[in-house]
Description:
The structure holds three protein chains of three kinds. Chain A is an all-alpha fold. Chain A has two domains: 9-57, no CATH class; 106-378, no CATH class. Chain A contains 16 helices and no strands. Chain A is globular, with a radius of gyration of 23 Å. The relative contact order of chain A is 0.12. By secondary structure, chain B is of the alpha+beta class. Chain B has one domain (63-379): Cytochrome-c3 Hydrogenase, chain B (Orthogonal Bundle). Chain B is built from 15 helices and eight strands. Chain B has helices at residues 63-67, 72-80, 87-102, 108-137, 140-161, 183-205, 209-215, 223-228, 234-238, 245-248, 269-292, 344-349, 352-356, 361-371, 375-379, and strands spanning 23-27, 39-45, 48-55, 170-171, 174-175, 311-319, 322-330, 336-342. The longest helix of chain B has 30 residues, at 108-137. The radius of gyration of chain B is 21 Å and the shape is globular. The N and C termini of chain B lie far apart (43 Å). Chain C folds into two domains: 3-184, Rossmann fold (3-Layer(aba) Sandwich), CATH 3.40.50.12280; 249-403, Beta Polymerase, domain 2, CATH 3.30.460. Chain C has helices spanning 7-11, 17-34, 45-53, 89-98, 110-113, 146-161, 182-211, 249-259, 282-291, 304-316, 387-398, and strands at residues 77-81, 104-108, 137-139, 298-301, 324-332, 336-344, 351-359, 375-378, 400-403. Chain C has a four-stranded mixed β-sheet with strand order 4-7-6-5. Chain C starts with 6 loop residues before the first helix and ends in a 33-residue tail after the last strand. Chains in contact: A-B, A-C, B-C.
Amino acid sequence: MFTPSVTHPIGDFVRKLVPDAMGYVTPYLPQSVLEYIPAANSVVAFLINAVICIIAVCIVAIGNAPILIYMERKVCAHVQCRLGPMRLGWHGTIQTIADVLKMLFKEVYAPKGADKFIFYLAPMVVLIAPFLVLTLIPFDKNMVIANVPVGIPFIIAVNGFGILGILLGGWSSNNKYSLLGSLRSGAQMISYEISFAMILLFVVMVSGETNLLSITQGQEGTILDWWIFKIPVLGFIAFVLFFISSTAELNRAPFDIAEAEQELTGGYHTEYNGTAFAMFYLAEYINLVTTSSLATTCFLGGFYPPLIGVEAVDSVLMMVPGFVWFFAKVYFMIWCYMMVRWTFVRPRVDQLMDFEWKFLLPVNLVLLGLGGAYIVLFG
Amino acid sequence: MINKGNLPPGFKIERSESNSEEFFINMGPQHPSTHGALRLALRMDGETIVEMVPHFGYIHRGIEKQAENMNYLQYILLSDRQDYLTAIQNNLGVCLAYEKALNIGVPERAEYIRVILQELGRVASHMVFFACFGGDLGGQTCLLYGFKEREMVHDIIEEVTGSRLTTNFFRPGGSTFDVPDTFIPRVKAFIKHMDKTMKDYERFLSKNIIVLERTKGIGILSKEDAIAYGCTGPMLRGSGVKYDVRKNDPYSIYDQFDFDVPVTYNGDTYDRYTIRIAEIHESLKILKQAVEKFPEGPWRAKEKPVRLPAGRYYSAIETAKGLYATYVVAASGDKPYRIHTRGPSFANLAPLNKMVQGQKISDLVAILATIDPVIPEIDR
Amino acid sequence: MGIVNYAPKILDPVPGGKYLVNMIDYVVNWARANSIWPLTYGTSCCAIEMMSSSMARYDIARFGSEVFRASPRQADLFIIAGTITRRMAPALQMLWEQIPGPKYAIAMGACTISGGPFVYDNYSVVRGAQNLIPVDVFIPGCPPRPEALFHGLLTLREKILHETCRSPWKEGDVRDVSTLDRYREASKAWLALERIKDEEMAEARAKFKEENPEYKSAYKPVRVKKEEFPEVERKALLGKGLENGFLSAAEIFTKTRDRFNRVVAKDMATEAIDTKSEVESADDCLENIMKYPVDFPLELTVNAEDYLDVVKFMRDDEDLKMNFLIDVTGIDYEDHFEVITQLMSMDRGHKVFIRVPLKKNFGIAEEKRANAILAQIPSITSLYPAAEFKEREVYDMFGIEFTDHPDLRRIFLDEDFTGFPLRKDFTNPHMIRRPL
């Protein structure tokens, strides 16, 4: 009997349901089929499990994106002293749905001279990374799809897919602006990947785990037990560095030199239209969710409520389910990303690289060393 | 194999082995940061610009030809449409030339109306500069903040002239009509508001580390070059020449006001930005004095038919962008024989090629933003 | 081609399928009508109002249209903001072709409706965007206010809501550029129509008068009290440079005349070409100069042979120090051109305008004259880099060749443009004369 690796309640349900259902069916089956039942059981269970997981990931990813786009437009509007979408639904709440529908029904074509196959492949490649990362995130104590032991190395490995998609998309468009944008983006993301990975390694080092669920469980307790506060100063510095490098990873302003509307008229997605462009858009926002989830998991205590050590308050906080806390933290992170995006101006491409190689990376290395020293000295 | 011939028109650096990997990229006429219909042909080496050739004429509307078939007053309408950000200043430039020709003076109240509207126009134009500069550097929020204050100016201008953008307001001897009673209180309120908000805006951009990194030492225009290329306005003063038409060749009643001509000496992008911010403060200073002394009395001189006696008349004013000169050649009748406008943007754009060579494409955007060109005024 | 367009083909034959198609129509139209992303495109004044409309005060985002896309591939709406010139027309059509369907166009402002203020006597403005691409909504105004743009946007929204996938969206057929001048025909037809209307009105009026001889209009014109305005003396303000050393017009003249004895200062009303054979004496010139008001710049008439030397002298002389070139421009007279070089000294503050008369070369055959270069003058680009663009402009507009110019090309007009527009005898098939 196949046992779904997933520990969440749905996994338990599947584990229980499949043999029961088979029990109802077995009396009516011929003897020759019956000997394959255990094997069939596990295949069916596996398939049901897989379908449930895919649906769950899609709900989190695609369900969040319209909300985020709406949120982005509203945050942007209020930073800029305006109202933002107001006409469609209450305060423009269903504006994004109209946008998405419209993009789906738009004409789709590739420019003349484009490498058509790669041109249409690129947006799908971009989507791979965020979806894979989402499967590893523990949304609650028993809500994780793939509880793999090598969570963090896997994330570091998978993140490269995003760059690949952007490079392919920019190159295949047969447009110099796209090519410039994708080259910029490639250089930028590969550089920032390093410090991104370094900080994740810092978390691995201090927590002693690579499994994301274990990392989260290492932060159980009050707010001071979160990795951001548990190690004095260093944790906070690591969090800030993570924030910077992940902003660059996400290609978001102020590090959006790959799109740079004022310079490159849209960068790598200049030539994309309709659905393909929507996929780039989607990938950007799913990436936002995954990166924020990662920050929440690694620094902000994951699905644990922000307990403060006072019994009366804590008991109230404990009543809220874990995944609500998780998403509250994720949305707080996303809000931070958005505020930064609409506040800062964009650095130049060479300054961006300078910043990574001459400042961020050395600081990261020093941080790793100090973290090691801290562990040795204080356990 | 290197193709030594066949460079696109305008490029001067020869092809050779060392620059065989260069490529050409076309920026505009529809590009978010070319400020309208300007087209720049760029010769790039990776991200670095080797050479740049501007192409004009995408909004060449033949205004000068059309003016020859219009009467003098109708031409004021066309002057609005040249530099639409400082339309009210262009009106004055044309009217001053007519006044010289007709030899009519302007009563004091009309002069004060002129000065106040001029300075409001300057503030509005510089706010658009602030907006576009921030926007071109990537700070979308600046774009909206700049326009927010500009709307207040345009409210006042609309109340006075009846139009938001293309004012067509001044006439030889005064203006089309008197200002309403609410004019002075509104200007006072605006000055008060502006004093406060300018501090916020300066905090927003002037001391932002990324802005400093992006703008300091970028696009340097030396003092000699600035004069030789005929730059005027903030471009010239940013390079260390303290020339302002309002001081050095005064018109209207600018000689009666106490104001400084801000000047900076590095000639880089940041200096051109700070000059404009300082100029907003100076404009507010002039506005404060003008509002205090705003007199009662006739708001225009006795009307004369606008038929210029044969001759050549020249007037120069300082618009927000620089020296705006009108040269009218009158023969006979009520139509000009020829009207020529010397717009500041056209001359200011001339040294762009020199400034961007060796810079990155992102710097080009920042430099172009600080030149603050208005393309219809270049093309006319 | 969008998927939706296949829906009627497949579903309409199926019983009950047309209701489904109607439903699809409703949903798709709702999405399209409420999410209109404009293209960032603007050429002149209207562009500023378009920008204003997306800014904090007016906020186009309320309608979900704040997503201004810089790339045409992601836009739905083409707001044609500002005058379209013949040089811009191909670019505009290319942009329109690049927008994926369904696409819509709004012609913003008078220029894009009919040419606006640039209808008559104009050789370069396209009279109406509908000559180039199909336009959905026209917004009058010069420029229209942001509110007007919103009204246009909402009108477009209404229009989209009534579309159906049974007759698919217009792919935006680009019209032939050769039909640019349909406006001329249209204006003729319109004029004829107006004339008929006038006649009809006159008839009706006469008939009414016959029938009601006692009728008196209730309209009473309101008389505005005419204000009396005083005559005011003009005050001439004298300029000053950055340093001392301002020279008066007479001083500059004598200084130059000492060096170049053919330089003269004429009365400002006369044309530059000399009908007399001998050069005017210095005293006559000084007398002319004295007639100028003080704030008029000195105008010197210089021969084409002396031109370069005079400019060089003025630039290098320590007292004159004309280091700033204001402008180079030209005037066309019947038998000669005049190139005017406006120089100024930033340090001293004085100005000199150098008038160079250039005889037209009438050796060229009359039919070729319109498109031929008729005069030559040395370029001063080596002395003033600022002159490069300005001389190109004079070349473009008058057909005066500047010898030794580093890059003498047309600047504002296309290379294949026929004629030089600022010549007085310039004709162009696209120019419409003002009706008298």
